[in-house]
Amino acid sequence: MTARNAKEKGSLIQWGIVGLLAWVVPGGGYWILGDRRRATVVGLTIVATFVLGLYVGSIGVVDPVNARYWYAAQIMTSPVVFWVGRCASAGAYTVYGRPYEIGQIYTSIAGLLNLLCIINALYIAHVREAHAQEDSA
Amino acid sequence: MIDGVVSVLASFTKPEQIGTTPQSVLWMLPLTAAIAVVYKATKVHRVVAKPFFKETALLFGSIVAFMAVAALILSAVAWFVNEKLPGLMGY
């Protein structure tokens, strides 16, 4: 393996860790990159939005069976949503009307905001690495 | 202590009572604030409390103002179609 291949592999692993951590804990990607303040702001805001959605509409708004497209957005918040979805999919938490709409919108937007942060954290990691390579060259 | 935890968890298994009223539109405000905060956090070079708060408040205000204008225009169109147009068409 050449030095360049090893470096590329190292970058991919680093991006994978940043992306995974950003998904597992909202704001985690920024945290591992050393941007603690941004991580705190983003993490608290996304978690608060998701929890508010669950509070308004109950955990019934996370429905992996009947609302798959909404679920795809909700799952971007964190893998914890898998567990919430499993609890809710038993059908014991039915919810209709305005609370359902508001809860679903809040939880899905929280997921999409986290997706934005995952992509942004990966971009920052890429830019920093490119700058480091320029400096070392 | 345990009763408190159980009651908090139980509140997540029962939806809140929100009617289809004009006031329910106000639920957009916390969501708009969250979007403004996260979007600005991804855009600014460094998160510094005062300028960050100022920029976020500006974005929040812009979104709310745009939505209010859009709502006014749509209400005017709906009013025209429902109230005036039938008379003009001779119905």
Please write out the topology.
The complex is a heterodimer of chains A (137) and B (91).
Chain A: H1 3-24, H2 28-32, H3 36-57, H4 68-74, H5 80-88, H6 97-136
Chain B: H1 2-10, H2 28-43, H3 49-88
Q: Could you describe the 3D structure shown?
A:
The complex is a heterodimer of chains A (137) and B (91). Chain A is mainly α. Chain A has six helices and no strands. Chain A is elongated and about 60 Å long. In chain A, 42% of the residues are buried. With 91 residues, chain B is mostly helical. Helix content of chain B is 71%, strand content 0%. Chain B has helices at 2-10, 28-43, 49-88. In chain B, helix 2 packs across helix 3 (49-88). The model of chain B has no long low-confidence stretch (mean pLDDT 90). The chains are: A mainly alpha (137), B mainly alpha (91). The A-B interface holds A 35, 37-38, 41-42, 45-46, 48-49, 52, 54-60, 93, 95, 97-100, 102-103, 105-106, 109-110, 113, 116-117, 120 and B 11-20, 24, 27, 30-31, 34-35, 37-39, 41-42, 46-47, 52.
